[in-house]
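Q: My labmate handed me this sequence with no annotations at all. I'd like to see what the chain might look like in three dimensions before we decide whether it's worth expressing. Could you predict it?
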Amino acid sequence: MELTGTGVPLTREDLCRLGLSGMLAPGGLPRLTTPDLRRYVTGYLDGGDFYREHRQRLMRLGASPQDIPQRPAFMLEQMLQFHGHRWIYDLDELRYALTIAGFDPEAVTVRSFGAGAVPDVATLDREVRNDETMYVEAVR
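A: Here is what I predict for the chain of 140 residues:
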């Protein structure tokens, strides 16, 4: 997970610091992006189009077919292992983490790529990851 536009990974501990340390004023609105665990697990279980389309996207970006085998387990593992993630979230788990970090659970909102409460911030979303990413905003 990262704070949009920074490229800096965030851990659960980072969420706590954002929410509880006063770094974010009351009413502050971070926009968080993370691979969507539900999307990856659903793709693994149902054998649908997600992995096929995601693999094609990665190859259009320069990955070779040898680097991205057509195996669902590989696609799930590459998300977990190759990108420095220490925790992967679905919406329920992210809402929980944000709540223990001091954010209002009722003010956790899922957004779409390039759309958000603060349009200038939403423009920082990276298109290269929009097929696998969950976009979430939360109010402290």
